[in-house]
């Protein structure tokens, strides 16, 4: 009989504690924040990283167009510049990226007989294995393509944006006819 009485008292205490716990609201805000904080922070980091990818893309496009102007006007050809000097010129226009540009950037400069034979699209999201350096002569049709590998950090973007081993291949191209610089 005493054991039944002790068991009943224990159940009563447990029921009172459970009711008191259910009514308590002191830690509700902390629990709600803990549930919402992780997805919220992941979303914020994804937005920041996506913004960086767009910033690198716009910077690369601008740098390729600006550096391509030196080919178009014949400055590269008359100075006898090579592919490394042109790559340095592109990286100098992307100087906010620091020294990473020289290892992450690949450039392909080719000439074509006419605009319909040159291809400007990166179809499979990979960097071609063979790069060319042919800035052409006066009146040549030139295609400059740049491939920049940008590492992705946010897990959400890794699945949606990655094109190669956790990295995004950022692509920019410009095509033009060289000016008559040798006259």
Regions with pLDDT < 50 over 5+ consecutive residues?
Answer: none
The SSE order reads HHHHHEEHE
Percentage of residues in helical conformation: 40-55%
Beta strand count = 3
Structural class comes to alpha+beta
Task: Round the Cα radius of gyration to an integer and report it.
Answer: 30 Å
> How many domains make up the 3D coordinates?
1
Range of strand content: 15-25%
How many DSSP H or I helices? 6
Largest sheet: 3 strands, antiparallel
Basic shape: rod-shaped
How far apart are the termini?
A: 116 Å
* Mean residue pLDDT: 85
What does this structure look like?
The protein has 183 residues and is of the alpha+beta class. The chain has one domain. 51% of the residues lie in helices and 16% in strands. The chain contains six helices and three strands. A three-stranded antiparallel β-sheet has the order 1-2-3. α2 packs across α4. The longest helix is centred in the N-terminal third of the chain and has 45 residues. The mean pLDDT is 85.
Give the arrangement of secondary structure elements:
Blueprint: H1 2-23, H2 28-72, H3 75-79, H4 83-92, H5 100-104, E1 105-112, E2 141-151, H6 155-161, E3 167-177
Antiparallel strand pairs: 1-2, 2-3
Features:
183 residues; alpha+beta; 3-stranded antiparallel sheet; 6 helices
Structure, briefly:
The protein has helices spanning 2-23, 28-72, 75-79, 83-92, 100-104, 155-161, and strands at residues 105-112, 141-151, 167-177. It is an alpha+beta fold and 183 residues long.
């Amino acid at each position: 009989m005493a054991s039944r009485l002790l068991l009943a008292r224990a159940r009563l205490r447990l029921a009172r504690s459970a009711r008191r716990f259910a009514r308590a609201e002191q830690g509700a805000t902390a629990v709600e924040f803990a549930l919402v904080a992780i997805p919220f922070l992941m979303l914020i980091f994804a937005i920041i990283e996506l913004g960086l990818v767009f910033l690198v893309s716009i910077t690369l496009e601008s740098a390729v167009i600006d550096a391509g102007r030196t080919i178009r006007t014949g400055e590269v050809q008359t100075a006898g510049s090579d592919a490394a000097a042109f790559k340095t010129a592109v990286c100098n226009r992307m100087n906010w990226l620091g020294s990473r540009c020289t290892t992450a950037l690949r450039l392909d400069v080719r000439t074509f007989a006419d605009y319909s034979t040159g291809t400007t699209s990166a179809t499979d999201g990979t960097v071609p294995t063979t790069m060319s350096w042919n800035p052409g002569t006066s009146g040549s049709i030139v295609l400059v393509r740049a491939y920049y590998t940008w590492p992705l950090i946010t897990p959400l973007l890794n699945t949606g944006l990655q094109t190669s081993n956790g990295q995004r291949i950022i692509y920019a191209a410009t095509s033009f006819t060289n000016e008559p610089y040798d006259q």
